[in-house]
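User: Sequence in, structure out. Go.
Assistant: Echoing your sequence, followed by the structure tokens.
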Amino acid sequence: MIIIELIYNLSVLVAISVLSGFVSQRFGKTSKKGQIMHGFLFGTAAVVGILNPVVLSEGLFFDGRSIVISISAMFFGPVSGLISALMPLIYRAYIGGAGIYMGISVIITSFLIGWYFNSELKGQKKQNIRPFTIYKMALIVHTVMIMLIYLLPSAQQISTLIETGVTIMLIYPVITVIIGKILADQESNITLVNELREIERIFRTTFYSIGDAIITTDNKGHIRQANAEAVKLCGVPESDLLGKDIGEALLLLNEKTGLKTENPIYKALRNEYLPQSESFLLKHKNGFTIPVSDSVSPIIDQNKDLLGAVFVFRDKRPEIIRNNELLKSAESYRNLFNNIGGAAYVQDRQGRFIDVNDGATHLYGYPKEYFIGKTPAILSAPGMNDLEALSDHIEAAFNGEARVFEFWGRKSDGTVFPKEVHIFKTSYQDQEAIFALGYDIGLRKKAEKDLQSIQERYETLFNASPVGIILEDLNGFIMDANKTACEDYGYSRNELIGNHIGIVVDDIHKPEISKNIEKIKFNKILYTRVEGVTREGVTKFFELIETLIELPDGRQGILSISNNITEQVKAEKTLIESESRNKAILTAIPDVFFRISKEGLIIDQTAKDSGNFDVSSAEFIGKTLSDILPAKLAEDGLAYIQKAISEDKLQQFEYKLNRPEGIQWYEARMVRSGDEEVFTIIRTITDRKIAEIEIQHQKHFIETMLESIPNPLFYMDKNGIFMGVNKAFRDLYDIEESDIIGKNIYDIETDYNANRYRESDRMIFEGIDKIQVLERTIILPNGEHLEVILTKSPFPDANGEIGGLIGMITDITARKKMETELKIAKERAEESDNLKTSFLNNMNHEIRTPLNAIVGFSDLLFEDYTEEEKKSFVVTINNNSEQLLRIIDDVLSISRLDAEHLPLEIESINLHKLMYDLYNSFSLQCEQKKLEFELDIDLTDNQLTIIADKGKIRQVMTGFIENAIKYTSSGKIVFGYEIHSNSIRFFVKDTGLGVPSDEQAKIFDRFYRGHEVQNKALRGNGLGLSISKGLVEIMGGTIGLVSEHGKGSEFYFQIEVQVLPEFPKTEADQYSKNINFNDLSLLLVDDEPDNLDLLFALLHQHFGEIGTARNGMEAVNLMHTKRYSVILMDIKMPVLNGFEATSEILSSYPGTLIIGQTAYSQPEEIQKMLDCGAKACIVKPIESAELIKILQTEISKL
């Protein structure tokens, strides 16, 4: 074991440390040589400790080096400490291993701490160092040592701390104190020897230099020493005197008769009485006599053995004898006085201290001089003693009456303590005095106080018991009775104590008293139902439990617990007369009683059956809790027993057992019965627990259900105090449950709302309303307003009365908002219907107008008109066709915007070219209306290139310019752009009609046309600006206007774009219409003959051969008979559409150039055609220039 090994190691260090005394005696501890020798001695001890360590693992071991190094530095200073530290430090570094850093650190810190204490104790004698100081130093050293364990590898820290921590903190400091005490004792012994030598030197000097003659003898009377004065008075040299019998060497004569007299030394050796002073004549060697006065004293060692005698004589004999006797008397008195077990005082009649012993100085902490001449008042605790009564005690003692009393003293450190004082008369140095002897009775007082407290608790419990309790001896005499017993029998407590128990028993049952006592002695416990007699002679009935107990004085007694069942018996006699019924009732009592020792041993029991335990009721006695209960339950039960005994309080707990019939619940109550046992009552509570568990389940279900309800829910009592809220309520108000429980509505709502709620709550509480459904606006802590429906209804209390109300909050803010939005939407829909009606009427007019021109002028072409007139008819027809096409495009654009089928088509755009194209497109119209038409751009940056959707920008700007031309009758139109970092703002300004302020918010709505526009019958469909807004939003931009009615408008849109440093160059920007593909053949595919004729008319001059096909199948068949170089393929055709025909032709003839043509302008239709293999796709109506451009581009790639 580690403790045994460490003790062996430390005992070696203790043995080596003993050699310190030898070093100190030979070399001295203060000399340099002595300090070095001590350093090597303790260094050797430390190395020896390392050589015999307790090894925990390789390189990790423990020994006692910390003890010897710190002791060496503390007792012998830094030189010794440093040497004693260096030796083991070098050796420990040499050994190495896992513990090297901790080991070296322990050596260094032990030296430094020891050195510190050496400095603190500088000037103090080492033999006076208190063990506590050494222990304090040791605790610091080894606390630091424990902390240094964390210098070990992390894997070994915890295990090392667990294995060595307790030993280091308990054993090491004790060994340090032992070694320190040995060194202190050695220091003390050396000091004592030196003092004895000094005393001997002084004694010899005094002996031989004193003016009195002194002769000492052994216990036979032979002279051992004689000083010069004795030699002088005898007239004989010392050498002649030594060893001779003193009677022969010194002739003493009677001072009166002159006859030889016996030397008084013989009397001293015989322990006979010696007078205080005697006069003799000493006969000198020369024959004359010298009158001397002597003093003779036996020499007795500490064991009271007679060693010899000393004979002191001089001419003034009477004074010498008196002084020696006084000295002897004083020493004897002082030894007795100081060795008395307590604080002793000698006082005069006024109570002043004449003398005090060491016990008094130690008790109070004052030096002796503090007491002398002062009264006990200086020792009195303020306000705790009657000093006049103290004077009376002193006076009574002087009159010969011994007194004993208590006195509260105060020590020098302020501690107040009780003292018992005995005083009596004595004499001191031939004067009357009193002798006072005091004992510290603090522990006794504490014990008395504790006993009183226990007695009071006992009395409280004893008298507060609802059942009668009587304590008897084994002879039946009453020793005590509680309040209930006294009231039951009509006697006072004092009347019962000392009387026989028969005083409360009727004459018929008195003979049974002694029999019952014997039964109790034998069975330890007795249950009976008895008839008692009150003081007035009234018979009462009691259930009696009598238990054999051990009294505090060791005797045995009987504890009788009586339950007054007089009324119960009367009721039983009234209702049930049979004895069997009484037994059945007793058998039905569910409680089981036990007497259990503090070790858990069952002393006695009253179990009627064993159904609740693992053994039969007959086997309970002598069993432990572990024998009859599961291990964990037995352990808990034992803890409750010990707590009931130690705290003297009722212990109550519940537990459960797995029985064959299922889990059974029990309640146990334990109360202390004496110091060694408890009285325990076990009751079955299974039904109650099942009910409680069911209630808990229901409560948990309800709470879970309430918490799960998504609507905020609360419930409050009739005073309006919140009793609970669910999670939705807490989340709504952003509060914790503790923030609302116990508060009212005023704590979470405004006073106005709270007053309204309070009034409606009153209608619920008074039963006027059975349910309330209220629409309210609540304000949340964050300031948010919610529209809610508050539903409230009452709930009953335990008596069926209204106990409070429960409320639920339904948030209808969204519904309210939706209702508002629906109302607005309805108004807008009605407005939209009106706009659509107006739009349809307008569209009817807008479509019929160009159609009328187209149909009318088409008919005129067949009439007899000149060629010039017919050309003007064709121009009119073309213009109206374009107008009709724009109307159709607007409707289609709206449809595409709704279906989100207008993706961005990003490309590089030369912004100058786009602006000039727009300028060229509309300059003629402006000139015709005599309007100024200006382009506002930076003319120097003609290569400005951006990445954007060119088509959509052009379409929006075209719409803006067309509107400006349409609604401006005079003035000018300016258009252009402004660059803002990564965005461009396009604008069109005019001096036209302007938009009234009340119409500006609706100007971009579909079908909306201003009142003035409609009044002036200006053509338009109300879709242009709505389409422009949609296109700008697709590009991620914003659109707006700045307008003043009657002065003009500025329409603008701003989009983010990427600006390139230079526009990519192309091979040619112009395509000539005078191109020739005579070496190529062309196949035109379309199901409409008019379209075939138009295409043939446009292209017959450019291709060497042109063929036609009416559907996709004809085209496929023609390709099999004649290979055409280029195909213009329509998409929507019967038999075989353009997608299928393109795929089939390219699968057989992959080198064929196919260009799609379609009246569908949707991007997905065009992309599908490209996916089938077409190289390009042109949208009808087909413009000649655009078609030639596409053909030239694609043919150039062949």
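User: And one key feature?
Assistant: The longest helix spans residues 154-209.
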